[in-house]
Write a structure and sequence with these properties.
The chain is of the alpha/beta class and 198 residues long. It is built from six helices and eleven strands. It has a six-stranded mixed β-sheet with strand order 2-1-5-6-11-10. It has a three-stranded mixed β-sheet with strand order 8-7-9. Strands 3-4 form a two-stranded parallel sheet. It is globular, with a radius of gyration of 16 Å.
């Protein structure tokens, strides 16, 4: 398969290095990651070889699995197993991981799916597990940068159930499942890398 035939999410090339810098620290003593909503798979094939101590388990909804698999086939790594089918609001695979990671999904999922994601975390996370989420959020009801306001409006025009989430709401969802936010890292392009731990 040629590069031209592979699915491409241009934002991945822009954000992968800043995310990796934090993941190298956050995953230094971790061994198994479940990536929820792997998208094209481009994050996975970039992160996995640079985090050799971690088994990086990709997952996606059935309709998008072929995109993830195409990248994993094109850029294989020993710590990148076959992607799992996972719809947040459906059945989850029987898996135990010390980290769940997701990028650019919380504002795309309907609000109910975000709630379900947090509710399912205790089922897959180990007792010392952590949840890492990358993407835009609002803090105190305010957007981080003017560009996010327009992006939020565009998201809601496409689907009223989408939108940039309030950090306080995400914290409430996490706390209801026994997780506490330990980090809020400001990354380029008005995005955050958030960490909640059990």
């Amino acid at each position: 398969m040629t590069d031209q035939a592979l699915p491409d999410a241009p934002s991945t090339a822009r954000n992968r290095k800043p995310i990796l810098e934090h993941l190298q620290r956050l995953l230094a003593d971790r061994r198994r990651v479940l990536e929820v909503g792997s998208g094209t798979g481009q994050h996975a094939v970039y992160f996995a070889p640079r985090l050799p101590q971690v088994l990086w388990q990709t997952s996606e909804r059935r309709v998008n699995l072929h995109e993830v698999q195409s990248w994993l086939t094109h850029v294989p790594a020993d710590n990148l197993p076959v992607p799992l089918e996972l719809d947040v609001t459906g059945a989850w695979p029987a898996i135990s991981v010390d980290t769940v990671f997701t990028a650019n999904t919380l504002h795309i999922m309907p609000a109910q799916a975000v709630e379900t994601l947090f509710q399912r975390l205790p089922e897959v996370l180990t007792t010392d597990g952590q949840f890492i989420a990358y993407g835009p959020v609002k803090i105190g009801g305010e957007y981080i940068g003017p560009g996010n306001a327009g992006f939020d409006e565009w998201l809601k025009e496409a689907d009223p159930q989408r939108g940039i989430r309030d950090l306080e709401w995400l914290d409430q969802l996490a706390e209801s499942q026994g997780l506490r936010r330990t980090e809020n890292n400001f990354l380029p392009a008005n995005n955050q890398l958030l960490v909640w731990r059990r």
